[in-house]
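Task: sequence design from structure.
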């Protein structure tokens, strides 16, 4: 996942959106004025780079997710096993629970019919199908674990990606929702999820 060359003002706009979301701003109620005020740029200036608010938000979510995935993947290079990598991801999720909400938000948004969701789908459609940051991240995680000699079909790889992502999203929900009777620490839940994912991947070796 290589960084695109972006204007400093575009990056500042994207970072402003991420900060506002982490502070609890409602994505649909967020205004361009609020975004540009946080970014420190004029409202008129932002329209030199974007057509509307939906384009700003879709770009910001894509950018933020890309940055989180890129940084996390680099951190995993020192981990030897898939279990260690998965555990590291989950601990990172626990330590950055607000960022988790932002990082997984594109997946949730693409499933409804809001204008932001439609713009997100348009943005991702313009890119290669496998370029969505979270999909690229988890696909690479799985491919790194499989032997070079492993012959895995497109459908099997898609299944493993779906399996890992769904479990991670479930864990994010577990961390954020108050309805769960959580233990004093999350080690048992992490252990079970890591173990089950590793078993699934191992079956395809």
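Answer:
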């Amino acid at each position: 996942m290589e960084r695109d060359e972006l204007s400093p003002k575009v990056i500042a706009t994207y970072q402003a959106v991420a900060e506002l979301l982490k502070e609890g701003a409602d994505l649909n109620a967020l205004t361009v004025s609020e975004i540009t005020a946080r970014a420190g740029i004029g409202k008129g200036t932002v329209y030199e780079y974007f057509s509307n608010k939906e384009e700003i938000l879709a770009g910001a979510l894509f950018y933020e997710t890309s940055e989180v995935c890129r940084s996390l993947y680099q951190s995993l290079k020192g981990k030897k096993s898939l279990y260690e990598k998965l555990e590291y991801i989950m601990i990172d999720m626990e330590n950055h629970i607000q960022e988790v909400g932002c990082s997984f938000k594109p997946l949730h948004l693409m499933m409804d019919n809001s204008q932001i969701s439609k713009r997100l789908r348009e943005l991702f459609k313009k890119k290669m199908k496998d370029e969505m940051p979270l999909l690229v991240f988890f696909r690479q995680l799985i491919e790194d674990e499989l032997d070079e000699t492993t012959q895995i079909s497109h459908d099997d790889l898609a299944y493993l990606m779906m399996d890992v992502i769904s479990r991670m999203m479930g864990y994010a929900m577990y961390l954020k929702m108050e309805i769960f009777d959580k233990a004093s620490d999350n080690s048992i839940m992490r252990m079970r999820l890591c173990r089950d994912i590793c078993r699934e991947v191992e079956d395809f070796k």
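The mean pLDDT is 83.
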